Amino acid sequence: MKAFLILEDGHVFTGTSIGSAREVISEIVFNTSMTGYLEVMTDPSYAGQAVCMTYPLIGNYGICYDDQESTRPWIDAFIVRELSRVPSNFRSVDTIQHFLTKHDIPGIAGIDTRALTKILREKGTMNGMITVDENYDLNAILPKLKAYTTGKVVEKVTCREKEILPGNGPKVALMDFGAKRNIARSLNKRGCQVTIYPALTPAEEILGDHPDGIMLSNGPGDPKECTSIIKEVKKLYDSDVPIFAICLGHQLMALATGGDTYKMKYGHRGGNHPVKDLTTGRVYISSQNHGYVVDAKDLEEKNIAHPAFVNVNDGTNEGMAYVGKNIFTVQFHPEACPGPQDSSYLFDRFMDMMGGNK
After folding, report:
1. Strand residues in the chain grouped as ranges (E)
2. Which of 42, 172, 174, 324 is the most exposed place for a label (fewest CB within 10 A)?
3. Closest by alpha carbon to 41, among 325, 97, 50?
4. CA distance 244 to 267
5. In this predicted model, what pLDDT tens digit does every residue of 85-143 receive, in sequence order?
6. Which reactions fall under this protein's catalytic activity (predicted)?
7. Across 34-136, where does the E strand assignment appear?
């Protein structure tokens, strides 16, 4: 079945429908990872977005459900150059085609993903529609595309009730703004008792449980949409509890303490982004997924926090160390394994801040 990807600037790509045949409008973004497509599809940070994989062959090692970063996929749609319909891997238990169909996620294959990526790089991230309707009306569609926004997606992806992962070490409160599974796993395997809280949990409840440390997770969308959450993060900042924040959590902490964020032209999404630790001078290969970034200038001028990491490619902020506080934040994903474990030491740093395994 034919499918069409229509961009808000009027570009139309024609390909083959994969997955669900339903129509979808979404923000179109690209990811430069060569592998890890299942982790991408199940990362809650992609809620409200349709993902184009820049690597041309996707699906050749199939689907292994153990690799999911959450219980379900969150992407709005999936865009690939060539879909491997017959996977070959001893861990594979499913195909992408069936996985997308089962979860009612539309997609398109057979388009020139290099051309699409170049458009997004030159013009910036934009909205688009995937449809199988060959009689589509471009004049009627374009206003709808321009009007689309992702909205408050954190509330859509967060857990609905508190969950506890038992452990004999420090008690960690994990704020679930759209947390990837491996964040909790990375803490749990270091012995931590991890309590996962819904995103809108009041700070008083979290602090009332007397955690040894607080983890602010990754998540989707514009951080400035999270107005009520930012107020609660400020209360957590005012406590003396050690805090480690990743991705959206890093942005929310900056906003809570008087900093600013802004939308990037096309963001960082992939498993090959170099970041420099400004303390040691070492460079790490990181996994990233964000369209917004912290403007560190105000926090630095007010001596609230100082840049701790910087992106080697474009110089944008990748992490902050907060003055007089046991708080550090990073924009990238140390729980992911692109390096493969270049930056997992940050979890050990967090353990040290909490007093290690007591």
Report:
1. 2-7, 12-19, 24-31, 49-53, 57-58, 77-80, 82-83, 106-109, 126-131, 163-165, 171-176, 193-198, 213-216, 243-246, 260-277, 283-295, 305-311, 317-322, 327-330
2. 324
3. 50
4. 22
5. 899 999 999 999 999 999 999 999 999 999 999 999 999 999 999 999 999 999 999 99
6. L-glutamine + H2O = L-glutamate + NH4(+); hydrogencarbonate + L-glutamine + 2 ATP + H2O = carbamoyl phosphate + L-glutamate + 2 ADP + phosphate + 2 H(+)
7. 49-53, 57-58, 77-80, 82-83, 106-109, 126-131
Question: Annotated catalytic sites, by residue?
Answer: 247, 333, 335
Residues in binding site: 45, 219, 221, 248, 251, 289, 291-292
Per-residue model confidence (pLDDT) at position 161? 95
What phi, psi does 293 have (nearest 5°)?
Answer: -145, 155
Strand partners, 286: 273
**Four-point Cα dihedral 139, 144, 147, 152, nearest 10:** -160
Strands (E), 169-282: 171-176, 193-198, 213-216, 243-246, 260-277
**240-290 pLDDT, tens per residue?**
999 999 999 999 999 999 999 999 999 999 988 999 999 999 999 999 999
**The model scores a pTM over 0.85:** yes
Q: Over the chain, what is the mean pLDDT?
A: 95
Which DSSP letter does residue 46 get?
A: G
Which residue, 96, 73, 97, 94, is CA-closest to 1? 97
C-alpha 103/C-alpha 252 separation (Å) is: 31
pLDDT at 340: 57
Of 335, 252, 254, residue with least CA distance to 287: 335
CA-based nearest residue to 120, from 286, 269, 293, 317 = 269
Q: Sorting pLDDT into bands at 50, 70 and 90, what band is 26?
A: very high
* Residue 314, burial from CB neighbour count under 10 angstroms (0-12, 13-18, 19+): exposed
User: What φ, ψ does residue 140 adopt, rounded to 5°?
Assistant: -80, -30
Residue 86: strand, helix, or coil: coil
Q: Are 217 and 183 in contact (CB under 8 A)?
A: yes
CA distance 249 to 283: 22
Which of 133, 149, 100, 150 shows the shortest CA–CA distance to 12?
A: 133
Coil, helix or strand at residue 290? strand
